[in-house]
Amino acid sequence: MAFATIIKPTSAKRAAVMRDYDIASEQLGWDTFRSWLDAEPDSWLNIAHEAVDTHVMHGGGSKEALRWFGKNGEHRSLTYADLEHETDRFARLLADRGFGKGTRVFSLLGRVPELYCAALGTLKVGGIFCPLYSAFGPEPIRARMELGRAQVLLVSPQDYKKKVAEARETLPDLELVLVTPGVDEAIPGTVDLTEALDATPPEFKCVQTLPEDPALLHFTSGTTGKPKGVVHVHEAVVMHNATARLALDLRPDDVFWCTADPGWVTGTSYGIIAPLCVGATLVIEEAEFDAERWYSLLERERVTIWYTAPTAIRLLMRAGAELARKHDLSHLHFLASVGEPLNPEAVVWSNEVFGMPFHDNWWQSETGGIMIANYAAMDIKPGSMGKPLPGVEAEILDVGEDCVTPITEPMSPGHLAIRSGWPSMFRDYLDQHERYEKSFRDGWYLTGDLAMRDADGYFWFVGRADDVIKSAGHLIGPFEVESALVEHRAVAEAAVIGVPDERAGEMVKAFVTLNAGYAATDDLIKELLGHARKKLGAAIAPRQIEVREDLPRTRSGKIMRRLLKARELGLPEGDTSTLEVQA
Fold this sequence. Notes:
30% of the residues lie in helices and 23% in strands. The chain is an alpha/beta fold. Among the domains are: 78-233, 3-Layer(aba) Sandwich (Rossmann fold), CATH 3.40.50.980; 469-569, GMP Synthetase, Chain A, domain 3 (2-Layer Sandwich), CATH 3.30.300.30. The strands form six sheets. A nine-stranded mixed beta sheet has the order 2-1-11-10-12-13-14-15-16. The protein is globular and about 70 Å long.
């Protein structure tokens, strides 16, 4: 997997926060990153204090913190002082009702101001905040609340009636349901959040939590029917703050937009915590994707740092470069992508259209923060994940039954592993500690991803270990095949799986969606097969291509290859609760 194109840093607008990667890697580490926070060494540490209160304490209360735009045209702005009052008020609301340290607060709210205040207020009282996708159906909601032993729930009245009310009796730990405005009459068994907050004074002293106290719970889909509950602690804020500055090039005078839903770990770590720790202004768009609306928001709000997903980037590519060029986007300083590997053509396209590339980065729910990234002052090799954050030790390992061995040969695939001990490392899988322990070997966290490292130290994603295809002695990474297919003018998206083959063991089968103006004819399929063989060679290219209207994906944008394979082979589908559309 080698690409001739190298994109040089765009340094004309401003110098990067991290100006030299090699020097930073030698000089920076966890102790330095901890010193960037307000907390004293070996003292208490609270995420909400670092994200909100410290700015007010140091004279930044008048700075705009949140800039919210509702899907129906509403607008609301909160300064850091406003945010301190509202988060104090929510913390006080919980405390006055007997909820304190360790309380598990779940949210089914979408991108509305109440969610952001509740998340930070929960952390102030020492509680554990767990965001869920507001688009979840009743069963995944019930399952996660049961697994997480939810005690408090924030929800719209409509979602409560449709998705929670019937299951209420099966959730014995659920003591308080707070509903946002939306209906005129009271709902039995719930408390009106607005009325409750209006009756609560905005006075609360942040609980002095310890770095190892639990703070966040994120559910991530598993290959079985049971989702995994990923537990993070307050020390994760060390990573949130450091990566915001170094990996996203974020600073206090920036206007930052993270398009991720708060129900996804990115929407919490970088859609709430990280930009506020830096002291930036966070733009929040409630509405779902619309290319014209997105470009208008970028232009109108003069967004400087934009963090989005590969799926959204590919949709923008489908909408065409001319739409982007109708808008003044000259204020953009840095573009970043997360969620799944970013295809090389998307990096090149963004560099041509925006005058700068999207910078891919890699991390997981389990890592809690960005681990490997393409940085503002570093050359980009399109298709690469980049290099590890200073302080992060990443390795490509050969994992055997009895030992793990580093792979030193450049561009040789192996298991991507991270040396344990980084601040935002997950501390457990909820009620699945044995599974958690199996994620570590000899001091390494085994990510479940396969990757390669080139001679310059750049990491390249190959695929999930379960997704890699073994065909006639070749190990084939789906991402490489998918990227080659997407280079064809007719293909919008692609997903690749291995299917059984008597001669080769497995053969490569591709599923594609088409751009507007193209039809799934036999001639087009032949053309795509030929295109893939020319790009990849007969040993790696798909032998079958099937055109689909849509590909199954999670609401965070990841294409679910395992679901395609399960349906193709008639296997159990496992946990499908995070599907964008239940189909």
